[in-house]
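Chapter review. Work through the record for Helix-turn-helix transcriptional regulator before attempting the end-of-chapter questions.
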Amino acid sequence: MDSRRQELAEFLQAMRQRGSPEAFGFPSGVRRRTQGLRREEVAQLAGISATWYTWIEQAREVNVSAEALDRLANALKLSKSERSYLFDMADRRDPHAHQNQVDTAPETLVTMLKHIQIPAYIMGRTWDMLAWNTAASDLFSGLLDIEWPAGEHPNLLRFVFAHPAAKQFVVNWDMRARRLVAEFRADSRTRLEEPEIKKLIDELSNASAEFAAFWKQHDVLERQGGQRAFQHPTQGLIQYQQVTLRPVEQEHLKLVLLQPAD
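Structure tokens for Helix-turn-helix transcriptional regulator:
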């Protein structure tokens, strides 16, 4: 028997049994032999067949759609982590996984940035640079050391493909720009239909022939660390080792650290 299918069955059973019937609008009753909700009650709440739901809990080989999982998650009042686990065990993509994610940097991370001595910044879902420290401002002069209007943020992709100084600032621009597009495609692979993502891709494709060409190549790379070199207008050639971290609580954010290379 498939281990994921078995885990999905046991997980749903545990979620069903943990709640009190009253919390879901059912009378508790003295004749209940089932802890928590009955299978038929879960099926009723989710608007699915009781027989079909029973088969899922029996780990039978049935096809569970993302829509059905969504209804089950709502019916069982699953938390964000539980909902994510449900979809992972069913090997389905949650259609609402990225909804209601506010693209702001948590205050704890912003405060942490102030105590980091090397260049560091936080990127959001569309690679807006949401927060940064003084060392990053000194490095990205003309981008991070200027005032931005309320509600607007500098964007790494806009900088690389539309800023007039980017090709001189980023050493080996063509290779780095190509990799950035491949990394962005990988990072946004489950969100390509989101309006903000589509708008950014259209904007960059119209503004930069290079971006349009790189995007059409459909290269995919996970965001990686490694050596980064910049030709700073006053400090000259500067080299770093880049590390990108993701906060567990908000995995759509990226904390980028640039350690000066020896």
